[in-house]
Amino acid sequence: MMCFLLGFTVSAVNAQAPTQKASISGYLREKSSGEMLGNVVVAAAPSNTRTLSNSYGFFSITLTKGQPQWVYFRFPGFYTDSLYWSAKLDTAVNIELDAIQTAESVGTVEIRAKKTTIADRADMSRIDIPVQQIKDIPALLGEKDVMKVIQLMPGVQKGGEGQSGIYVRGGGPDQNLIVLDEAIVYNASHLFGFFSLFNGDALRSVELVKGGFPSRYGGRLSSVIDMNMKEGNNKKFAGEVGIGIISSRAVFEGPIVKGKSSFMISGRRTYLDALVQPLIMATTNGANAGYYFYDMNAKANYILSDRDKLYVSGYFGRDKFYLNDKTNQTQFKTNFGWGNRTLTTRWNHQFDAKTFANAALIYSHYDLSIKLLQKENDTSQFELDYSSTINDYGVKYDVDYRPNPKHLIRSGFSVINHQFSPSAIVLKVGKDFNFNRKIQVINTYESGVYVEDQWREGRWNLYPGLRVSHYVVDQKQVVNPEPRMSVAYNIRKDLALKGSYALMNQYIHLLSSTGIGLPTDLWVPATANVKAMQSQQFAAGVAKDFNKGYSLSVEGYYKTMNNVITYKEGASFLLNDDFFNPGVSVNEKAWESQVTSGQGWSYGTEVFLQKQVGKLSGWIGYTLSWTQLQFDQVNQGEKFYAKYDRRHDASVVAIYRLNKLFTASATWVYGTGNAITMPQGYLRGSGHYMGSIPEVWDPASGFFNNEIIDYGKRNSFRMEAYHRLDVGFQFRKEKPRGIKTWELSFYNAYNRFNPFFYYGQMNDQGTVRTLRKATLFPMIPSLSWTFKFR
Amino acid sequence: MRLGWILIVFFGFTGCYDQAAEVDLPTYNKRTVITSYLSPKDQNITVELTYTLPYFGKQVADVPRVGDAKVVVSDMTVGKSVQLPFDSSIMLYRIRAFALPIVNDHEYRIDVIMKDGTTHWSKTRIPPALKEADLKVGKFVVGKLEESNWGGQSVSASLEMIAGNTQTGFYYSPQFEMVLEDGNGDFYGSLLYFPNEGIEAGKTGDALRYLFNDRIYIDQFSGGSPALDPLILKEVVGTFWVMDEGYKERYVREMQISDNPFAEPILMYSNWSNGAIGALGSYDWVEAVITP
């Protein structure tokens, strides 16, 4: 077995060692860029002691004093590193792991990499998404998308065609805690949901947790998607630019002070508006309309001392649709935009070889606005300004403490002040009709205190934890204990049985309209009248590692959800403001009267066969699941299948690196059709309408004055099954100053007409109405060009 | 370079089209629809019996009527039943109310036995009788007249109506107009729109409050002079309604049906047994002129 000892620096020795034990601690980095590496397996032999590095690359492993040990550092896609240790004192080291760069070396490294076993991990329902795989998998219009890759995992389902919203184990898209450098991101999509906010070029790590939640996470019921931005190369200046069909992107990184601080900045913008603009102007006699989105990630870090490090990172992105149609007399102008902003400042401090702490100040902002202006002869005739905003101000403190080889104890707290303005409207008609009524900002405070232990005892891995969440709204407060537990038992070194339980509370809801995925969905807080959601999830499974880097996990889960909300029948987001409900006081939070709460159940089985190393890598995922909901005021109180209830969901991902110049990849997905509500019949009957002048009900005297659609039961119609094959080919060419990559991909390669939505169409004679489906994306080829310079 | 541009244009514009295709129709289950509203004010007892029509497929111009069912109405409070004959001239089951008077606070049951033997039934309790004195005007404010760009005048107004002696299990709705008198002695009327269609659930031992708070537009008489301040609330005129759950549910759902594409689908209401849809409801009203 070959070992590549690529960087090993003993930088400090702590003389305050405990009596029988001593620790090795330090940071794990990628050799070429100096990027921190989280979730690296650190294992010592022959003592069979193991741990993982945290998301800042920090690790600490405690061993018996003076007993010689080999300490191994293993991470998929990297050469395994090791060091020989026999010290009697605490030791601090910095380890640099070298990424596997070439296809020729893959076969060699595979032998070591296979030892990164799923049996090493006590937790379950957790998947690390390799950022490189995001880049290798073919994507719609060539836009690499983290969320689309997450959709390919078992237990995760997509919303509609092309959309980046996700449904995890029967939970809604609002039940996912999406975190970018510790800041919550509320609406994680661009282009009405077709692309995610996250630029893969700017990301260092992506982790998905579907169940067995560690107690450091809270605030959402169904999943955690924890993303960290790259820190920036602290050794040399590097970058990458890419040109695609609808957008271009660039990322630059490098040292600010070599070895001391670095930066990373990335940006992306679409140019559909610029391409289509001349066509629109020509066909509409000068109207100006378009759509674009852009986003920007930036991060800088500074090493204050051997034990202190400072990070500042931010995200800024916006989508905008605009239309400006002006003639000599009239002008019609509309803007529809939404965007996210985050800013995180973090300070890492290592107290000693066993204790690591991180303090963070976090700001997150999301807003949606619809503006409409109609002018005649330069006089403002009609103005509408609709907006919905969330501002989060948070503080967070986490401590990792490793008292001995058997325990890794994590604890901490967080406090977030959410400031919601679910809907505000300014409306002006002419000069004298002027509404300017803003709904009062709703201030809520969400906090949590947690402690968790990663406890290894022989063949047992235990992961007990407790989170206590606290929520304040409308001068009322609730305290909810949230016990968590994960257990793993290693039958053999490569075979483990696992189980978990998690209770979660969620103090925020997304009011979402059926059938559309527009950002008009409103985020609203739990209030005195609309309770917080709560879920309990049980999961059990088995994990097995095989030869040649294959691993298999099979998990079953059962989840209950309480106080889930939905719009009442007939309600809509357009009715959320008091303007549309004359007489409702602005303080009554009009949206509250539009919703009803209920409960949900989800259960199923997930199979995940993965191969992370070798020329051929990828995975096969399969989920068999059921998701039902029940609301007293919907579907006459009866249970019904959720729209995203999906009996079968399968994905196959294959990436084949033939050599260093050519990579081929393919994904195939299959999913049972969404459950939707469709008209089945209708009745013509006579109603009765109250009026200020009394009138008795007399159908004989009138006519059939209404036509009411019979939808049958809620979500009783199944759309056709969704399936699609995407293929991609990457051609690389080494140049003196970098690597040039051409990528040709085919989305929906066999041109399957997947349904986007259904509609009824009457024939010209009005005698026959047919049901038709609209397909959004046929086979779409795309071509992109990327240059990564050294 | 030229080839690059050609490729970009080709790939960029072939990926933008929609495809529609016919698919299997949703399952259509023909459902019996039974509608009847009972009121002490009505001189007839009427039951409308029909079927739903398929939404997709061949469309039917005529409303299908069921004339061969047996329809029986019973006053459960006094234990009396009558069978309603089918009147083919109006295609309804109807009988004069003196055959079975509809009385406040009595419970009624309707049984519909279809030709194939299928039976559907439903019950309703007639709401209690209302009194004009049960409804009062509470606080009210009428603002100053303002000119409108639309060519008329407008005024902001708020008004509270208070209903007493209501009962749990029934729903109450004032459908009223406010009558304003201006400085010229002319009268202007405006409907009062309350939230939730003006329907509130009754509360035994507590009053219901309805709040109107909006801007109203003053229609100018043709050739007449504009309204003149001050505007004074002279009276509130209209009808105070009371209804049972069945009437309220059907009414509210019908009012919610709209062309709003973002609205949630509204499932058809039913309080009939054995899979029939439609409503058996009951209602009553009292006319009132309330002087503040």
Largest β sheet strand count, sense and barrel closure of chain A: 22 strands, antiparallel, barrel
Q: State the CATH topology of the largest domain in chain B.
A: Immunoglobulin-like
N to C succession of SSEs of chain B: HEEEEEEEEEEEEEEEEEEEHE
Kindly name the structural category of chain B: mainly beta
- Most extensive contact: A-B, 90 and 93 residues
| Number of helices in the DSSP assignment of chain B | 2
Structural class call of chain A reads mainly beta
The largest pleated sheet of chain B is described as: 9 strands, mixed
User: What is the number of independent domains of chain B?
Assistant: 2
Share of residues in helices of chain B: under 10%
Instruction: Kindly provide the name of the CATH class of the domain at 8-116 in chain A.
Output: Mainly Beta
Mean pLDDT of chain A, to the nearest integer, reads 81
Average pLDDT, all residues of chain B: 85
How would you describe what is shown here?
The complex is a heterodimer of chains A (790) and B (292). With 790 residues, chain A is mainly beta. Chain A has a domain at 8-116: Carboxypeptidase-like, regulatory domain (Immunoglobulin-like), CATH 2.60.40.1120. In chain A, strand 21 (288-305) and strand 22 form a beta hairpin. With 292 residues, chain B is mainly β. At the A-B interface, strand 42, strand 43, strand 47, strand 48 and strand 49 of A face helix 1, strand 1, strand 2, strand 3 and strand 4 of B.
Brief write-up:
The complex is a heterodimer of chains A (790) and B (292). Chain A is built from four helices and 49 strands. Chain A has 790 residues and is mainly beta.
List keywords for this structure.
heterodimer, A: 790 residues, mainly beta, Immunoglobulin-like, 22-stranded antiparallel β-barrel, 5-stranded mixed β-sheet, globular, B: 292 residues, 9-stranded mixed β-sheet, 4-stranded antiparallel β-sheet, disordered N terminus
